[in-house]
Write a structure and sequence with these properties.
With 82 residues, the protein is mainly alpha-helical. The chain has helices at 5-15, 22-59, 65-68. The longest helix has 38 residues, at 22-59.
């Protein structure tokens, strides 16, 4: 029995591995890039907000009065005195 051209082509089609289409790869990569882009934007926004808060905190002078005040006993009015 001599193999015909159509039987050879059918055999090749059956053995050939299924390849992912180029369009599928582009779609997956586009989704991945979009997700990382959103994460980058969120991170940059958070960094900007933290820097802004840091500038506000550094602009206010630190109140050092606590170190110069004498110690006040805060346990005087406690209900469970020992």
């Amino acid at each position: 029995m001599k193999p015909t051209m159509s039987s050879i082509l059918l055999l090749i089609e059956a053995v050939k591995p299924s390849f992912i289409a180029q369009a599928d790869i582009v779609i997956v990569l586009s989704i991945t890039v979009f997700i990382f882009f959103v994460l980058l934007i969120v991170g940059l926004r958070k960094t900007y907000k933290l820097q802004e808060e840091s500038r506000k905190l550094n602009a206010n002078p630190i109140d050092d009065d606590d170190e110069t005040k004498p110690y006040k006993d805060f346990t005087e009015g406690h209900l469970y005195e020992s």
